[in-house]
């Protein structure tokens, strides 16, 4: 059994700056987006809610 239970961790050399990628505008009506909406949405209202167009004053879903 080894004494001195210090765990060895990799030391980082300096701080690395994360470069943010520029956010590109996504077309929600593209064929790939429409195919995705077809498989994840149950109806038109659900499709709009997934795309960020929810009903005003609607109750929010609680996370699991």
Write the layout of secondary structure elements.
Layout: H1 31-40, H2 44-50
What report would you give on this structure?
The chain has 64 residues and is mostly helical. Helices cover 27% and strands 0% of the residues. It contains 2 helices and no strands. It is elongated. It starts with 30 loop residues before the first helix and ends in a 14-residue tail after the last helix. Residues 1-21 have a biased composition (Basic residues). It comes from Chelydra serpentina. This is Small lysine rich protein 1. Residues 1-24 are annotated as: Disordered.
Structural class of the helix and strand makeup? Answer: mainly alpha
Task: Write down the Rg.
Answer: 23 Å
What's the total count of β strands?
Answer: 0
Largest sheet: none
N-to-C SSE string, H for helix and E for strand = HH
Average residue pLDDT: 78
Q: What percent strand?
A: under 5%
Number of helices: 2
What best-fitting shape do the alpha-carbon axes yield? elongated
Protein name: Small lysine rich protein 1
Biased composition (Basic residues): 1-21
InterPro entries: SMKR1 (IPR037760)
Region (Disordered): 1-24
